[in-house]
Amino acid sequence: MTITRADIEAAHARITPHIRRTPVLNLDRAFGHDGPVSLKLEFLQHAGSFKTRGAFNTLLSKEVPAAGVAAASGGNHGAAVAYAAKQLGVRARIFVPEISSPAKIAVIRSHGAEVVIGGARYADAQAACDLYVEESGALRIHPFGAESTVIGQGTAALEWEQDAPTLDTVLVAVGGGGLISGVASWWAGRVKVVGVEPEGSRALHAALEAGRPVDVEVDSVAADSLGAKNTGDLVYSICRETVDHVALVTDPAIRDAQRLLWRDYRIASEPGGAAALAALVSGAYKPRSGERIGVLLCGANVELAKLAEITHP
Predict the structure, then answer these.
(1) pLDDT surpassing 80 at residue 74
(2) CA distances from 282 to 32, 254, 285, 287 (A)
(3) What are the structural domain ranges in the chain?
(4) Do domains 5-50+147-311 and 51-140 have the same CATH topology?
(5) pTM beyond 0.85
């Protein structure tokens, strides 16, 4: 499966009236690196994450049945689908696992979607969603394993290149892999794309190592956003051709990145949103001297009480 720059350009034109063009913060000699660092502030997107791009691209490029749409989500995808559905006047039912944060569930409900607790883990919620789609005829919006989703997420890279056209390498957090698949499809062969996963949730790392999608155990502070059990065939087929490698970060490194973002930039980031930066700060990714690094900050749906515990232990 090949997703082209033309596919992503068409999606960007389609969704532009409905999304925010999120800003880029270009820094010099930041985070202990002696070269420039570009932060794509995608957590400022509607509903708090990049997921809104894929949700709008799917809703605007598919026929939506009377039953509306359904999605399984650890939180961010559900919030994005709920927001897009509300803006377009479509019914939405979102299935979430018990591990989803109350903050993310509150965001989903705030956009008028029906929330259903679909089991202990994300895979359980996905199974419940699939059953509902089969029974109701609703349109399923997959969080990462669908072409329209991946193409929509790739629009973040299109904008980023316009605002920071000389990047050498970009670091992108990976859950199911829809974001990195879109970003890597845009920059294929031109910019090095490095995935970042928690050590306890490494579906893409395991797939690339095994030469095929495989199931992994999920246990990480970022599991509610980076907690996919399996990348699926689409993400794997794209990433094996376009992603340089996957760096693994520890949960403490992710927490350190959250603290740093709050302390120095007053950015309230969820764990998954800080994972890509954690790779740079912790040394899980070691850039060469002067390398022009991009870091995608992808989500801000964090419980403020938990952030306070992290930043003021």
Answers:
(1) no
(2) 10, 9, 8, 12
(3) 5-50+147-311, 51-140
(4) yes
(5) yes
